[in-house]
Amino acid sequence: MTKQPRTLYQKIWDAHVIDTRDDGTSLIYIDRHLVHEVTSPQAFESLRVAGRPVRRPDLTLAVPDHNLPTTARKDAAGHILPITDPESAQQLAALQKNAPEFGIRYIDSTDAEQGIVHVVGPEQGFSLPGATIVCGDSHTACHGGLGALAFGIGTSEVEHVLATQTLLLKRSKTMEVRVEGQLGAGVTSKDVVLHVIGVIGTAGGTGHVIEFCGNVFEEMTVEGRLTVCNMAIEGGARAGLIAPDETTFAYVKGRPYAPKGEDWDKALAWWRSLATDEGATFDKSVQIRAEDIQPTVTWGTSPEDTSAIGGSVPAPEDFADASKREAVKVSLDYMGLTPGTKLTDVEVQNVFIGSCTNSRIEDIRAAAEVLKGRHKADNVKWAIVVPGSGLVKAQAEAEGLDKIIIDAGLEWREPGCSACLAMNPDKVPAGERCASTSNRNFTGRQGPGSRTHLMSPAMAAAAAVTGKLTDVRELMG
Amino acid sequence: MDAISHVAGRAIPFGRKNVDTDVVIPAHWLKTITREGLGKGAFEAVKKEPGNVFTDPEYAGAPILIAGDNFGCGSSREHAAWALLDMGVSCVIAPSFSDIFSGNAFKNGILTVALPQEAIDRLMEVAREHPIDVDLETQSVTTPFQDRWTFEIDAFRKHCLLEGLDEIGLTMAQGDAISVYEAKAKADLPFLAKTPATAA
Ligand code: SF4
């Protein structure tokens, strides 16, 4: 029997279809559901009102992250410290109550495994290759780094998944982003994805699921792949995917929720069959040469506003599209930047190393490598490193990275989303700049009036040291 | 969910383009744990602008909102739909909507109507003094001045909105099909169909 060649996305999709309506909408089974405190309270409330149970509490994992302060959670005597913001406290308390009430596994804010949902899922082996994974957070695409079909959903959909373990979806188009060649020194997975978004634009992937292909991704660690897929959503895509391979399997094996014994063998056999078939076609295709990618930063208020660090702030007239020219004008005004200014002359007052994009152990190691034996510049008033989970924190401390970070004058915090979206007390003051490893540089994202420059952990560490946007390669070797 | 077949009344002539969900409801309102009360925070920043349409008593309680291109872009927060509902808006008319917003609106029983910019321009003019009529059954928008435009809507969405059907209830009615899938997955993809009983 000859089978039509299929892409990775099509294979995962086909394996999860329960039913397809005439209009092309399919009922899709959801294998893993991650829940946090911000987008779930109203979903639980509606279930309660309707008297509906959670269909598969065993496929659901709840963990608080968005609201949690990243300062100490216990006092010296080990007593849990109260959350001072009453609204945050109320959301956190709601999750703490809802999860057990509906029989859902819950990691508490003071548990060793607590962390950002998208760091915890892969770390615990809860997120698996080939799985459909959802969460009420737009950066759920992150888990695509394992070869899972993962995407963010709204609260009504959170409720739909809790009640039925399914979602009604239309199949997306597919887009290939192929990066081949040799990445230069100092160029990381974050630079790759920022560069890709700069090339395709924030609408480049709209209606599509992106598969990242080519030797650059094949040679990348799983943590790097998670960073890349995390930002697929900033390229407009519903999800990002990287084919699971031996690197992925080695990463997953032995994690707490990973399959074991016979199940593991079955899983491996299926996972090995998932890669896009020879001859399968994508609806859209983009090719990028690895050699063209430099350490990259953003200068504007859209993730597509990227530039190699060696570049200058562009002028609105540099853009052909009239509406983009208008947007650039507004954005430069907000960012307080003058066209023609060299990026390396732009001073920063804040540094944030963290978020589900870049808060895994490799990210902390990369930052520490730059910080080692150096100290933050005097004009940098606030610089924090926020590990993605308690386990990342413990690992970093076992390697002595916390000490390097603290000696360099940066703060070493408790895990959470922190200044990625500033729902907790970690905010960038109005009018000030932040070198940030997060994923969104939108107006006010890191606090009202905050000015965000996105970059890799190594680049953010370099900015902390010099007090300006900096080419990390100048501090290397 | 309330059934919706006809929305008639005053319309808020906002007209702005690329209104993101942060403008509809700023992030600091996301800390709520209920769906109610968000109307207070809706368009918070716009309400501070002198002469804005949201604090103009002329449009208080208007059930329709008229906006520009790409309404509801940005963050996927469903709070944007709840905020509109809470301020009494059950229909938004714009040249285009972000996919996520129109999905969220639909799930909360808000009708989104896409009409060409010329129609929006005319509606903005009419809305300043007169009511507008949106009929889902005939998929048409009319004014007291014989203007009439028709709009497209997905047949399934139309059916659900007209009947006030709740998507979750509809899917739960397919419980047997879901169980069949689960049984098959247990055999074929056991590693996805369950998590280890105890995380080791
Ligand atoms: S770190 Fe930022 S993007 Fe990631 S889950 Fe938290 S808020 Fe969302």
TrEMBL record, chain A:
Species annotation: Novosphingobium clariflavum
Keywords: 4Fe-4S, Amino-acid biosynthesis, Branched-chain amino acid biosynthesis, Iron, Iron-sulfur, Leucine biosynthesis, Lyase, Metal-binding
Enzyme class: lyase
Taxonomic lineage: Bacteria, Pseudomonadati, Pseudomonadota, Alphaproteobacteria, Sphingomonadales
Needed co-factor(s): [4Fe-4S] cluster
Functional pathway: Amino-acid biosynthesis; L-leucine biosynthesis; L-leucine from 3-methyl-2-oxobutanoate: step 2/4
Protein role: Catalyzes the isomerization between 2-isopropylmalate and 3-isopropylmalate, via the formation of 2-isopropylmaleate.
SUPFAM superfamilies with a match to the protein in the record: Aconitase iron-sulfur domain
Protein name: 3-isopropylmalate dehydratase large subunit
Amino-acid positions noted as binding [4Fe-4S] cluster in the UniProt annotation, renumbered to this chain: C356, C417, C420
EC number: 4.2.1.33
Keyword Membrane appears in the UniProt entry: no
Domain Aconitase/3-isopropylmalate dehydratase large subunit alpha/beta/alpha: 10-467
Subunit details: Heterodimer of LeuC and LeuD.
Renumbered residue ranges of the record's region Disordered: 297-316
GO MF terms, alphabetically ordered: 3-isopropylmalate dehydratase activity
Automatic annotation (TrEMBL), chain B:
EC number, UniProt record: 4.2.1.33
Record domain Aconitase A/isopropylmalate dehydratase small subunit swivel: where: 6-118
Coiled-coil ranges (or none): none
Major enzyme class: lyase
Assigned protein family: Belongs to the LeuD family. LeuD type 1 subfamily.
Protein's pathway: Amino-acid biosynthesis; L-leucine biosynthesis; L-leucine from 3-methyl-2-oxobutanoate: step 2/4
Swiss-Prot/TrEMBL keywords: Amino-acid biosynthesis, Branched-chain amino acid biosynthesis, Leucine biosynthesis, Lyase
Organism: Novosphingobium clariflavum
GO MF annotation list: 3-isopropylmalate dehydratase activity
Designated name of the protein: 3-isopropylmalate dehydratase small subunit
Assembly and binders: Heterodimer of LeuC and LeuD.
Described function: Catalyzes the isomerization between 2-isopropylmalate and 3-isopropylmalate, via the formation of 2-isopropylmaleate.
UniProt catalytic activity: (2R,3S)-3-isopropylmalate = (2S)-2-isopropylmalate
CDD domains, per database record: IPMI_Swivel
Pfam families membership: Aconitase_C
